[in-house]
Amino acid sequence: MTALFTPDFAPFTTAVVILAALLALEVVMLLIGGSLISEVDAPEIDLPELEMPEIEALDMGEIGAEVLEIDDIATSGAATPALGWTGFGTMPFLIWFAALLTGFGASGIAIQTIGPAPIWLAVPVAGLAGIGFARTFGGLFTRAIPRTETAAQTTRQLARRRGTVTQGTSRRGRPAEVKVHDRYGNPHYIRAEPLRGADEIVAGQVVLVVYDHRASALRIVALD
Prior knowledge:
This protein has 8 helices and 5 strands. The protein is α+β, with helices and mostly antiparallel strands.
C-alpha cells in the first residue's frame, strides 16, 4: 500500500481513486433514485454545417429553428474520425471515462509492480492500454446492460439528425412517420411535418430532423 503512493505510482493511483469516487457517487445517486450515467450525457460535438442551397434559403432567424447540421455520430457510430478509434461518443460518457480510468490505473500499477519503469514511459503505455480497454470493455458493457439511459431522449436531442420517412407522406397538417437514430445508434420513430409549409415528403426519402422553436415541434427537411 505504501508503494501505491510513491511518485512512480502516483498517476495510476490517482486514476483508481477518481474511479472509486465516481462509483461511490453513482451508488449515492442510485439510492436517491437518480444516476450519473443518465444525468451526464456525451458532450455535443459541433460538426460542419450542411451546405444545401434550399436549406440556406430558409430564414432560420425568423422560425428560430436549430442550426442544420449532419450528425455523423448517428450514421457512422463514432464521434469524429479523430476520436472514433478511442470509442468516445459511442457509449455514455461516464461509462467510457470509467473504463478509461480502469484500464489506465490497472495497467500502470501492473507495469510498475512487475518492473519499475520511468514515469515518462509508463504513463503513455498505460494510456494506450486504457484507451484500448475503454474501447473494448466499455462497448461490451454498454451492449450488455439495459439501454434505458440511452433510449430516453428528449425531443431536442433528436434534432439535427438524419432520418428516413418510413410511412405516409409528410405535409403540413399530416405528419408522417420518420425513423431517426440517436447519438448511440438507437432507433426512434417520430411523426413530423415538413419545415416548409409547401413541401410534401414521401416515404423513402432521406430527411434532416430539425427543431422548430416557434412550433415547439420537430420538423423535417428533404435531403435529396
